[in-house]
Amino acid sequence: MRILICIGLILILGSxxxxxxxxxxxxxxxxxxxxxxxxxLMNHMLLVNDSIKKQIIAGEIPQDxxxxxxxxxxxxxxxxxFRTEIFDAYSKVLIDNQKxxxxxxxxxxxxxxxxxxxxxCLACHKTECVGPxxxxxxxxxx
Length: 142
Ligand code: HEC
Prior knowledge:
Elements: H1 2-14, H2 24-27, H3 37-57, H4 85-100, H5 110-128, H6 133-137
Helix pairs in contact: 3-5, 4-5
The structure holds heme C (HEC).
Heme C is lined by residues 11, 14-16, 35-36, 38-39, 42-43, 45-46, 49, 77-78, 82, 87, 90-91, 94, 120-121, 124-125, 128-129, 132, 135-136.
């Protein structure tokens, strides 16, 4: 049960419109038990990048591009208005940067490749969905 509450909290805190100025009551209008495919994918991307961050800090080299990220092109969103041309442009940059991270032919330091990826998350979020920005900023390697 506690786990369910935690998941619920993560979803509330992570939801798109839960930027600082929303009131508590507004936050609880989100449908906790039916996150969109895109929400699930985004939360997955958050976790995977967090583990990539830990690997890089530990001096390891991340091995495999997580192919499931490609679903960003098709995943159903909470609100279809998010899938704009800007969204498609940013998601392409995200996938390119995330792939470069695993491509040893790309001669950019691993930390920079990683931070470029996270900055692409942030760039899209600044235009489309500001709520999760504080969580995403924690992924940056400073
Ligand atoms: C192309 C634009 C775009 C990019 C790039 C992007 N996001 Fe998102 N993100 C969104 C949108 C839009 C939503 C809302 C999805 C929905 O509610 O269906 C979202 C939602 C989220 C959420 C909240 C999910 C929830 O619980 O509702 C998190 C966390 C998140 N993104 C993290 C990330 C991370 C980490 C990255 C980079 C690896 C990333 N995002 C890249 C647009 C983007």
